[in-house]
Structures
1.
Amino acid sequence: MDGPLTRRGLLRGSVLFVAGAAVAACGGDPLAKTKSTPAGGAPKITLNHWYHEYGEEGTQQAAMRYAADFTKANPDIAVKVSWIPGDYATKWTAAVLTADGPDVYEVNDVSPNMVKAGQVTPLDEVLGAEKSDFDPKVLAPYTWGGQVYAVPMIIDPMLLFYRKSLFQKAGVAVPGSFAELVAAAKKLTAGKQKGLFAGNDGVGALNTMVPWSNGNLLIDDRKIIYDDPKVVEALAGLKELYDAKTTLQGYSTDWWDPGALINGAAAMQWVGLWAVPGMTEALGDDFDAFPLPAFGPGGRPVVNMGGWVQVVNGKSRNLDAAKRYVRWLWVENTAAQTDWSLAYGFHVPPRVSAAAKADKLTSGPAKTVMDAVAAHGVKQPALWTAEVRQPYTDAVTAIVKKGADPEKTLAEAAKRSQDILDKVPVL
């Protein structure tokens, strides 16, 4: 769910739930009385809950069911579920500029700018005593000034998957270092088969993951640290991988879809846990996973922990009701959380206790992933926002693809990133 998954003809628009009844809400007054409205009149409050358009079948219906169940338990609060297609980030960003935006919505990141603008509100009371049942690593990027501004909905681990039969045929072992990964990719590249698929540009998430695996997270609190010999070294390794023409490029789908691995276009692929059911259906037990190996002696293996979180609009006219709803659904209701994570797609429930009880995560490649997350999971630093990292992304492209001088290019980019970061408010 963390990437732009394949879309299937899901329903558009929104649905309002009032005291157990679903009312199509494509326009007009959502509180208008209908034959389905209870005798006592419409609920006193209507919450608007925005979701991005998930790709897995059944997710929209599940979101509607959760809203209906909440309204049954809380008949004074109706919930209007809005399924937002297209460029969700642009749409929610515009919508929350005013009090007419969604009361509850989902995001990947929470920035200080969002906090300062009142687009989110503290949710410590929503997490309550159950806060200790959430991985601190997962909560950390959403914590500002000692307050937590989001409740995790799903965790999406991303790492390397591989075809066991192709490894066996080529006499390749699971790589234990980045140098071994490069050697394996070269050996596994034959004919139309490439050794590795990380993205259609030939680099993908490895632009950040490889430096992470060499012990540099690119940013340390409010200081840009990627102008560093460790990053230069990591990007030299990434350039070697790229120049060897071992990475698949220009495939019909991008890294988030496991098609390249399934179809044998690549022997290894950077992809997320969400792809496991599709790979299992297509490949049986002919695949497994491993973290991105440590780059060098001072590095570490890396599993990237993505995901979606729930926030409450600080401008909402119904803050208390919105918090009540979020707590009911994303903190207390572990059955719904497990259903949301594992009944339609394949993700990790964010509450540690719920994940531990999820049978689907206790065997095969899923267990490999869960073990790797426990040992090597890394969450993107909160201030590594799209704006801050853009100069770095441009620098990596210049270094890896165009042969630009790495020290000079990173130094210049780091100054631009730092200038942008310095403008982010301090909380």
2.
Amino acid sequence: MLIQIIQYIKGYIKIRLVGYSPERFINLCSYHDILLWNIENVGDDYEMYITIKGFRKLKPILKKTKTKVVILDKCGLPFFLHKYRKRKMFFIGIVLCAAMLYVMSLFIWDIHIEGNYTQTSDVILDYLSTQEVYHGISKKKVDCQEVESMIRAQFNDIIWASAEIRGTRLLIHVRENTDTDVVDTVQEQGDDTVTDLIADKDGLITKMITRAGTPQVKVGDVVKEGDLLVLGRVDVLGDDATVINYQFRSADADIYAKTVHEYSDEFPLAYTDKNYSGEHKFQVGLKILQKQIRLFQPKIPYQTFDIVTDEYTLKIGENFYLPLTLQISTVNDYTPVEKMYTQEEADAIAEQHLSEFLEKLRKKGVQIVENNVKIGIDGDFCKAAGKLLIEEKIGARTPTEMLTIPDPEERTEEE
């Protein structure tokens, strides 16, 4: 591929060799370092490609071998430029287009966020815009490490963030922590505050791994909300088993417990269905950064309709995004029809809602132990209610009580 590009830039000629000594001609060309390629036998003649520089050296060789060449085609950039040499505006347009693409390559036109679940991309983008990181910002003004720090500092549930620039894209990868209560409390108190772990809900301890602090409960214990789980203070005992000092360090542990979660959901049996007629209209628009331009917007004759818009961001290659987005909207005509869910349909919808709720819990690392949710019809509503027995990580932080050991003299006086 690279050789072909070089050949196109330098230019080359397709020729036909006519004469009685073609082999001698080819040998002499090789002896004088004249490049020939794609040599093909066509009847009594030969067709081949030769460079422009090599073609200019053929005269003595042709005379010596008593052969002739016929030019069949001229290929490459030099011949293209010569052919269109009078069309100055065409070349000016090419130069301007190349310059425009180069200028656009200096800016960020697409900010893509991955790994976010609880925080939507729009929320993160709105925050970044307040920090002067937005679509259309110059690459020189984007400090990826600073972007990572800002996101971690602003969103408590994001424990890891990575930002990188590829082409005209700013790619941001984040990782969220489902244990938001613990994270929020730690950040409110500051890094210097020694903390205990307390139960943030009632439950039965099923698993416990303590890395720092003094455990106050064990597997199998039933805890209530507010009970102390891990103490951030460690007692230092003397030879006589009395406390001679305290060591303070924030409690660090993974504590899992079976807890009960109340679930409820309801929706009316009556709903409005859309009976589509099949008729539709198209609207075409263009979005330049945040400004929308309507290119084609016909009059809508329908009384009731919905609009589905597809957006296509223009790009060159994989990561060279342009600040242009093509919007194609489909306006669909429909007639509203009032309907009622049957019991089977309502049960299926309620089951779907419950399945989606359970899937969200599983994504947070929660295990479903028992499902006691009942679904039924109550008047004009379908209701689902009950209790879920789940196994989840528990624990919230609270400041540790800072105790001091009295001086020996003070203890003697007290005695």
3.
Amino acid sequence: MQVFKFGGASVKDANGVRNLVKVLNITGYEDTMMVISAMGKTTNALEQVVANYFNNKSELQSSIQDVKKFHNAILLDLFDNEHHPVFKKVTTLFDDLSLFFDRNKLPDYNFVYDQTVGYGELVSTTIVSEYLNTIGIRNNWLDVRDCIKTDSYYRNAHVKWEDTQQQIKRQYKVNTLNITQGFLGSDSNNFTTTLGREGSDYTAAIFAYCLNAQKVTIWKDVDGVLNADPRYFENAQLLNTISYREAIELAFYGASVIHPKTLQPLQRKEIPLCVKSFLNPEQPGTTVCKGKGISPEIPCFIVKKNEVLISLSSLDFSYIVEENISDIFNLLHLYKMKVDVIQNSAISFSVCVDNVYNNLDKLLQHLKAKFKVECYENVSLYTIRHYNDVAIQQIENDKQVLLKQLTPTTMQIVTK
């Protein structure tokens, strides 16, 4: 039994869906769980729908129609018959989305977000499933919300593993191609929850863990895991193998190819994770498995943009001691700040955070009651694993370094 995950880039248009079929024919798909993301940039488009619901209701329906038109173009390219049942199924999904906005009474942004963005995955899997059935590849479509059960921490839900394992084993059909959505789950009230951005990788790992899969393959538009994001760094190199430990380190620091939570359930059962190109499916890609380090052992570069650096110092030159640090972390937790780097001295404390929930102003107001506060927005956090002098110079060149921290294997720099 194997698990495949196809991201949005792999099904961004009709040709992408056809290419997915080629991948399945090359690799085989019997007894396979296939997890599929929203098509192309649909999640971003649905985030705009949410923004319009709260801030610009006159544009709400037109923004929903834009998403529907995008998918209708793909449908018309894939299906010769406009009376095919898939057209009605997709229309019904968009009608359900509009109905939610008509009936919703809760003003909670995070709740509305989760009830909205999941339609991207529901539509994409409906289209792919129906297309595969049409060309003779029979499959079992699953609503992942019936499988993955979570708490109600909207936008970053936590999995209830025992309930999830029972539901997955009940829903999955052996010796069949099963298709489901990434990124989504549901809480005890059957409201949709999401597992965090890029959570489709995590979805694949959840199914692999619960079904004791032989391996997980994540299909990307790159040849595998590279030592740097080619959008930001030149001459990125392919990593052939990565240990679970090293991959978790890279994910923790923000490597975009692997979701931070994906590797933990796989490591517990030593299920290999392969990252391969859907454009070159016969190439070996990268394998994450039991072992040591990386091969080849070269510096790995990670960058996180639009971070916030907060520097605190005591108002009376007293020490920043345990009580102060405890207060600071309680506030970071209260305002849901993701902490990426910390550094402190006797009378100062600096922290680089990701302002995911847009609570920065509230946090700063709270901190200023007790500390002198300096805040730098839109900074970049660079991390180098297995750094050397050349790698450090490459990053620091022509940048203003606001914070720098080194350990024997990792260097982190915050730059303006």
